[in-house]
Every structure is written in structure tokens, then in C-alpha cells.
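Need C-alpha cells for this chain, all 435 residues.
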Amino acid sequence: MKKIKETVKNTYDGFINVLKGLGSDKDARQYKSFVKGLRITQALANNLYTYNWLASKVVDIPVNDALRKWRIINISDAEKKEQFEQAEKDYGIKSKLSRALKWSRVFGGSAIIAIIEGQDPSEPLAVDDIQEGSLKNFVVLDRYNIHPGTINRDILSGNFGKPDYYMVSRKGKNIHHSRVLKFHGIIPTILELEANNYWGVSVFTKMWEAISDSQITSQAIANLVYESSIDVYRIDGFNNLIANQKDELAIKRLKLASEMKSVINGIALDKNDEYEKKQLTFAGLPDIDDRFIQKVSGASNIPVTRLIGISPSGMNATGESDMYNYYDDVQALQENDIRPKLEWLDTIMSMSLFKDPEPIDFTFKALKQLTETEQAEVDLKKAQRDQIYLGENVIEPTDSMSSLAEAGTYPTIDEERVEQEKNAEELDPDFGDLD
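Here are the C-alpha cells for all 435 residues:
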């Protein structure tokens, strides 16, 4: 304690008031500190995600929202676009990406390994040498099933501070880092990164107290509900029965009174006995439960509206501002984390699909889902805009059709029909002329 006291005094920076004890040895704040909390083990993370509804929501919701509307592939060649989108489904890109993101949040890390025929897994990935049809699979593993090797300490290397090789559990074979798409979970400090064998930490690390407190509070309230109605019996001579070791007779008396109450919808007692029914009230308990849910919401950056589907309380509270902030966070997840990983996956797929591969560009679809009324208003404004631009010869009819095809507004207007109309425009210069 003396050593801690001296350390704190040497690092103290603030006001001192000798009379009030502020900043002196009597000031309790000089001895405060912060110690690390519970380390989330593989078993604890697995149990939380698998068996606890609130913990699983904290993991799933941001990932599901980021991938829910998916993306729009921008490939000019309609045939190539269709082929690429079909390969995306065949390889299960969306589901595997979702699994890797969720496992990284649960365990603090995961990885996707590219299985390419004709290349040695222990050698660097030669993207330009990927043969057509050589991509066999993408395998998803959590951090406990793939282990980093020796860390690269060459400061001039592009892989500095990262392992050059990984080893898959039960396989026993090295895989070069260029073939491993790594998901880190929550990125901690270098100290924690090294302690976690160069993986991140679980999202539960910072939310353990909020989740556990919320669940314990809900369980305590549920137990109170079971005891909300209590029967109180005042039986003449009851204490004498207990004192004379006639417990069985006393229990039989209470049991008989309870059974008679259910049979005759009333209760029969001796003249000197009394019966009272006490009902507990729960005023204020829902507010307490909500407070703990709000702490989970704050810890996870997921609005209560999205987390458990309950509208926020208070005057003029709609939760719209919270949802807009949340959508900003999800968009940051898409652009900063998901996009680079999709680009890596797309490059490998493209090299395996096409003889003359081209860079794959894509855009994420809007996160917010419009109501039918909102969508109708948007469509009307777009139609009015297109009508004005067509009248001014700013755009061609196929430009408007392409926009409708991309949005999927009409089932009969697709990319193939747009291509046909464009070819018709080229053959007939007066095609689409309104005059």
C-alpha cells in the first residue's frame, strides 16, 4: 500500500486543499486505479453467443445489417456480371463473410482461407498465376482453429508485426499469410495483441458487465413475479405444534388449508385462525430493467430500438437520431472492414472465372428500408427528373431504363433488355426521338 501511495502521489496532478484534505493523504481519490476485467475464454464466448439471446444479438445485429441489403456488382459486360454473381452464390461468399465477421466478434478473431488447386499453400499466393477454374473453396475458421507462426520482425517488410505463416489445427501444415484473410475482432493495444497471440479481443470483453448485470436483473424481477402473491396464515397453536416437534402435523394443516381453498373457492379456518393474502407491487421495476438494457445498448453502440425492438421513452422520443448514428457506424464497418475483404475475395474469384479478368467494382445498397409510401415518393421524383432530362436531351431512354433495371423496379426491365435497347439505339439514330 505504501508503494502504491508513493506512486500515486508522484503522479498526482490537481488542486490541493490542506484544510479539506483535497489532494492530501486523506483524499481517497488518490488511491483509485483501474484493473483489467474478466478475460473472455473460448468456452465463455461460445456459451454466451450460443445460449444467451442478448449476447447473440450484440454480435449478430451489426453484421446482419451491414450485409442484409448486400451490394450491387458493377460489371459492364452483362454476361460476365451474371457469371460472377452466380459464382458468388456458388462459393457462398455472403454467408461465409457473415460467419467470419460474427466469429471474429465472438472470439476475437477468425480467418478465411483460399483453397486454390495447383499452388502450394505454404508458398506466397501468386494471384496472376491463378488458373481458370482453380479456385475450389473458401474455408472459414475461428481463431482457435488457426494459429499464427513466428512474427515477422523485419521493419522493412510489408508484413512487419504479423506472422508469415499460419497452421490449421489438426492439419499440421503451414499456410502462407497471403492466402489467409484475417479478421481481428476488436483491435486492442499492442500489449493485449501480443497477449492474445496476435489476435483481437471478443466484443464481450468490454460488454461482459453490462450483459451479465442486465440478465441478472431480469432474472431477479422474474423471481419476484413468481412470489407476487403470498398467502399468510395465522393459525392458533401453530407455534406449539412446532415446539412439540409435531412438524408433520403443522405441514399437514397448511396443506389441507391450501387444498380446501382450491376445492371450494374459499378457505375454511378455525374460529381463532386468520388468513391474509398479500400482493406485491412492481412499480418502478420495468424502469430498472430498461436502465440495464440501455447500458447494453450504450456498450454495444446499438440503439435500443434496434437491439430489442422497443421504442425509446420520453417526450418527442422517436429514436431516429440514434438510428442515423447507428447507420453511420454500420457504413463505417462496410467501408473500413468489409470492403477490403470483399475486394480480396473478388480478385481471387475473378482470376479463377475469366480468361481476361477485370477489376470488380461494387457499391453497397442503402441500409435504410423505405416504406411503400416513401418508395413511391422517391420513384415519382426520379420519374419527373428523368422526364425533364429526356426532354432536354441530357440522357437517353436507355439511361433511365438502366437505372430501373439496377433498382429492380420492374421485373421485365433487366440488364439484358437494356443491352438490347442500346443496340437498337446504335442501329437507329432516331430511336427514342420524341419529335
